[in-house]
Amino acid sequence: MSESTTESRSGKTATQQQRALVFQGGGALGAYEAGIYKALYEGLKSEVNEIRPLFDIVAGTSAGAINATLIVNHFLQNKEKMNPWEGSAEILYQYWQDVSTNTLQYENPFMKGWLEASSFLREGFNNFWVNALRPFDGYFGNIREQSPFLPSYYLWPDRLGSLASTEAFRRYWSWYQFSYLPWGTHNVLSPPIYQPDFRFLNPSNYMLRFDNSPIVKTIRKFWDDSKNPIKTDEGQPRLLLVGVDVQDATTITFDSYPKKHKQRMSVYGDDDSKLKHVIEYPDGIKMEHLLTTMSSHLRYKFPELLAITGEVIDDKIPEGKQNDRIFMDGYYLSNTPLREVIQSHRDYWYKVKGLKDNVPPLEVYIGDLYPTKEQGIPEDPDSINNRVQNILFHDKSKYDEKVTAMVSDYVNIINSLMDMIRSDRNYSSNDYIYRDLKKPLANKIVSISRNGDTREIRKLIEGRVTINKLQRIGYGEGQSLENSNDINGKAFDFSRKTINDLINQGSEDTKAQCDFQP
Fold first, then answer.
1. Which end of the chain lies in a sparser environment, N or C, as judged by fewer CB atoms within 10 Å?
2. Is the preceding peptide bond at 148 cis, omega within 30 degrees of 0?
3. Which residues of the chain have pLDDT under 50?
4. Which PROSITE patterns does the record cross-reference, listed alphabetically (predicted)?
């Protein structure tokens, strides 16, 4: 695959606008992203040709990282075909079928009938007691919220609330089965591994942890990482996977593209320190790298990778200390890795390709698995915990988008002014302008990097990334708590019905929210 090019001010060539796909983490909710991808492929495939790929960048965290990996691997295994993307949506669909499990015991008509009858009786019960206790509250005020009645506040018969819908009830008990019962989740997780609290000798403080070897085995049905590690070059889709270093609380981005000196490696660490961790993967991205971003804190053992820690100069591997670094799921720190996509995009085109002022702008599609807005007030334990989860892990990249746009606007203004100066003074390049500005601006504008070094002003201007379009496709956005089937354990509900519903919902939401050209 080749790409169309344009000439930049610096004399370097640059590609036209590139398209990025960003997938969040969310366990079973990754099936919703499979539906998103299916609809995006159908809507955008008419644009795919020898100079325009479906996606230039495919990035993900956790379940989104699995989806991203399977998509890029499918492309590489079919790169000689006219359309290497064809069949990739079907691969995702088959993967999610393989990790789903039938829970017919919660789907039978007797269960549905019992729930509907119980819900009807509960509603009548609630109405009776709300009306019966209204005079009590009118006479005694808020006595039920005072000691000694407060500990029993939620046990009063008018505080029981309504029963869940039949579908929410099914999802809840499916999640409970997969998470707590002794047979685990087929093709996903082992049975629970009990970890007692020996440190404080507290028998009630325990964790249920898991081994995710079953899902690794399932992924390898679709991706043989030992034979086909993922490494790509310009013109092929770029795979970006984001994990979290447990000890540093910093993100690491595994990148299928080469760095400046043709190495494939990840450089990361504390922004305030000159010392960085470097992890090499010359053969490409393998399962051990994917594991770092798909292993939550509940994995019985944290994934480890060998790193070199030292001062990185000119993107060269440092002479430093070798040590094992441990990782956990990327969604704890960057569940929507837009920032990592922007930074990696700039680093490649600016540092590797040498483009100073014509980095390809981005068109970005984001799958958002945790609703930002909901109607109604959560009151029962599950809906409260679910709302907390949605707030913690929803797409927080809107600020990154605003900052990127603001910086791009400033840089565009500066570039326009520099074009005027070049024309007025007959300068052949911007280097002469930076030379003229160096002395008068030396004491007026000082940019200090996070590690304390003074940066050249030109480095603040060159290589900046513009986002021309950003399309978010959100699961359950604006849902009402009164009729929502959403549950707190949705990330662990791998029931066949839920997975298929999520795939269909992702596809329908994408078609509704995206304006595809016919």
1. C
2. yes
3. 1-13
4. PNPLA
Beta strand 374-375 with 479-480 is: parallel
Distance separating alpha carbons of residues 176 and 270, to the nearest angstrom:
39
Contacts of residue 176, defined as CB under 8 A and 6 or more positions apart, other chains included, come to 489
- Which residue, chain included where needed, has tokens 């009590």? 136
pLDDT in tens, 409-460: 877 788 788 888 888 888 888 788 777 777 666 555 555 555 555 666 677 7
Q: Look-up: residue for tokens 């495919």?
A: 58
Q: 44-49 contacts: CB < 8 A, separation 24 or more?
A: 44/19, 44/516, 45/83, 45/85, 45/86, 46/517, 48/83, 48/85
Rg over alpha carbons for the chain, rounded to the nearest Å, is 27
Which 8-state DSSP code applies to residue 348? I
One-letter amino acid for residue 42 of the chain: E
Return the H-helix or E-strand segment holding 197.
strand 193-197
Q: How far apart are CA 369 and CA 64, in angstroms?
A: 10
Instruction: Please state the three-class secondary structure of 18-72 as a single string.
Output: EEEEEECCCHHHHHHHHHHHHHHHHHHHHHCECCECCCCEEEECCHHHHHHHHHH
Tokens describing residue 512 = 């509704």
Q: Domain 18-101+215-403+466-514 sits in which CATH superfamily? A: Cytosolic phospholipase A2 catalytic domain (3.40.1090.10)
Query: DSSP label at 318?
Result: P
Residue with tokens 């060159």: 462
Domain boundaries, the chain: 18-101+215-403+466-514, 104-184, 404-460
